[in-house]
Design brief:
Helix Hairpins; 497 residues; alpha+beta; Beta-Lactamase; 7-stranded mixed β-sheet; 12 helices; 5-stranded antiparallel β-sheet; single chain; Heat Shock Protein 90
Length: 497
């Protein structure tokens, strides 16, 4: 029972079932057409054929010099009997080589066509009179002439622009025998075709499902953490596209897993260190400081600094997680970037007054941008603090430069520190990436600052990057959409109103 259920859910079985169902439907349609519509179609075809003969007779009678010979040929080729009569029912001409109704007699009512060997007679004079009474329009009907379901089709019409009409008698032979032969052949064809269809559909379903099954096996390995697997292409566009997507996803998952491991390692380390120091200095306050106010304040300062460090780490982790997950959305507005940047940099300079770094900036007045003010402040803050932390020991210069075009502004944060190698420069935007031992810090950080910068700027659709040379320093830059001053003033005025 279980195997049956699994088989019914397999792709191969489903494809095979659909192929077979399609084949059966096609054969059912063929049988339906054979049984129901063959007879009807045949009779309709014979009637249409008779109407075409009538048009030909009209043309022959009006245009041909030897119309009699042409009418005889037409009647012979189509196994029909053709009569030309006056509109009052007088027989004018009939084909002499007819195959069915070349016998006719003159009765009291007019001329009567008789079927040889059958007790059937058709009053053609009466048909001519009916045509006359019908204003020359066609007269047609079908007669059964024997028990074998043989029929004849009688068709008559006035010849345009003449005082004559024609009557065509067309036999409609029963096609039961033909239908029986066709049905018998169709039966054999159906059986053979179903067998062939079953084999071909099974082959095709397996061929189509095989690459998907292989992808499934590879996906199971990927699920277990094997990132070395490769989803192979198979020649089908859709599946090849899927394979490419899965290969890209594998690379992303591998990188995510690496980041996760790095994150756990770094977070564990970054959390453990300040916690250890907090505990140690707390014990020192308890056991050693005693009434020594100077020692106690020094120990408390260490505890406060390490607590601040923990707070920054947790806040950065939360910010990055929210940004990457899409929880945080941008609140874009038009604001004066020059004022915001100047105020922020002055604040950083005041808070880092005890360092040896010289922070200078060159920012033109009244540069308005469309962006999330809080997030852009965070970007600029992280870049300046990053320059302070990583430029190296000793007296260093940090220059913030803002330039503008008609549509964009560009912000550059430059230091004259130790620099970053080209190899390490590729990874500086990754969370917790450590360039090297020479990449020193004089201020402790979370290691997430540049990752936060990257994600914020990506959400703003901003260009950004970094340029560096060992021993000469590093320059970080980004750009923002600029808004004309008059448009910014107008927008702010409308908001106040």
């Amino acid at each position: 029972m279980k195997n049956k259920s699994e088989k019914s859910k397999s792709l191969t079985y489903a494809l095979w079932l659909h192929f077979i169902t399609l084949a059966v439907l096609i054969f059912v349609l063929l049988w339906f057409m054979q049984v129901i519509f063959l007879q009807t179609y045949y009779r309709s075809m014979k009637k249409a054929e008779t109407a075409q003969i009538g048009i030909k007779v009209e043309n022959i009678f009006k245009d041909a010099l030897d119309y009699k010979e042409e009418i005889d040929k037409t009647a012979y080729r189509n196994s029909a009997s053709i009569y030309i009569l006056s509109l009052d029912g007088e027989l004018f001409y009939t084909n002499t080589t007819s195959t069915g109704t070349n016998f006719y007699n003159q009765s009291q009512s007019g001329y009567v066509a008789q079927m040889p060997g059958r007790n059937v007679s058709i009053d053609i004079s009466d048909i001519a009179k009916s045509i006359t009474n019908n204003s020359g329009k066609k007269v047609s009907y079908t007669l059964n002439i024997d028990r074998l379901k043989t029929q004849i089709y009688v068709y008559g019409k006035q010849i345009p622009d003449t005082k004559y009409c024609y009557v065509i008698i067309m036999p409609i032979d029963p096609i039961d025998a033909t239908s029986t032969v066709i049905t018998s052949q169709l039966l054999y064809i159906t059986v053979i075709s179903l067998i062939i269809s079953t084999i071909i559909s099974l082959f095709m379903s397996r061929r189509i499902s095989r690459p998907i099954m292989k992808m499934n096996e590879s996906a199971k390995k990927l699920e277990k953490g094997d990132y070395n697997i490769v989803f192979e292409k198979c020649g089908y566009n859709e599946l090849d596209e899927l394979a490419g997507t899965l290969n890209s996803a594998t690379i992303s998952l591998e990188r995510t897993d690496e980041i996760r491991r790095e994150l756990l390692a770094n977070v564990s380390h970054d959390l453990k260190t300040p916690l250890t120091m907090i505990k140690a200095y707390s014990e020192m306050i308890r056991d050693l400081s005693g009434e020594n106010k100077q020692k106690r304040e020094a120990h408390l300062k260490v505890i406060i600094d390490e607590t601040d460090r923990l707070t920054r780490l947790v806040n950065d982790m939360m910010d990055l997680s929210k940004i990457e997950s899409g929880i945080i959305t941008l609140n874009k507005e038009i604001f004066n970037f020059s004022e915001v940047a100047t105020t922020l940099i002055d604040t950083i300079k005041m808070s880092n007054i005890d360092t040896q770094h010289q922070i200078k900036y060159s920012i033109p007045n009244d540069l308005y941008v469309l962006a999330d003010r809080t997030k852009i402040e965070q970007v600029l803050y992280n870049l300046v603090i990053n320059a302070i932390k990583h430029s190296g020991e000793g007296k260093r210069k940090i220059d913030i430069k803002v330039t503008a075009t008609q549509k964009r502004i560009k912000v550059e944060v430059k230091d004259d520190g130790v620099g970053i190698s080209k190899e390490n420069l590729k990874h500086i935007w990754d969370r917790y990436y450590k360039a090297s031992e020479s990449f020193t810090r004089n201020v402790q950080g979370s290691g997430l600052g540049l990752s936060i910068v990257k994600n914020i700027l990506l959400k703003h659709s901003s260009d950004f990057g970094a340029e560096s040379e060992i021993g000469k320093g590093t320059t970080f830059w980004f750009d923002l959409e600029r808004i004309a001053k008059k448009d910014a003033i107008l927008e702010n005025t409308n908001k106040k109103d």
